[in-house]
Amino acid sequence: MDDADVNVVVRAATAGDAGAVLAFWREAAEGVSVTDDLDGVGRLIARDPQALLLAERQGELVGTVIAGFDGWRCHLYRLAVLPAWRRQGVAAALLAAAERRFVQLGGRRADAMVLTGNALAHRAWRAGGYRPQEEWQRWIKPLPR
Q1: Which end of the chain is more exposed for a tag (fewer CB within 10 A), N or C?
Q2: At what angle do helices 90-105 and 119-127 cross, to 10 degrees?
Q3: What one-character-per-residue DSSP string does 54-86 give?
C-alpha cells in the first residue's frame, strides 16, 4: 500500500522486522509494555501476520500500528511515528491501512489504546475520527511468565 501524499509505503511486518520494531518503539513510542521483547513481537507476527503494520519511507521505518482483530472487535495499539515525521500524514496512512484491514475482515468498529496523559496522541486520534469512550475504563492484570 502506498500513500503518495506522505510518500510512505505501509506493509505488514515480518519476523525479521522484530528487532527494528523494538528499537523504533524505544525511540518513537510512549511508554514500555511487558510485551516489548523479541518473543512478544514474534508471537504477534506469527499469530496474525497482517496485524503489525509498518510505514516506511525509502526503506526507513517511520511509523507503526498494531491492527488486531479477534473475530469480533478491532483493536489498535502502538500507533507511533518518528518525531521528525509527526504531523505529516504518517499516522493517517497507518490508520487508513488498519481500517481497510478491519473492513476486509468484517470488523464493525475500531477501538484504540491511548495513554491518558499523551496529549499529542489525543490530537492524532481525534484527527483520525476517533473519540474517547468515557463510559469505559481499561482494567489490567499482568500474567505470570
Answers
A1: C
A2: 60
A3: EEEETTEEEEEEEEEE-SS-EEEEEEEE-GGGT
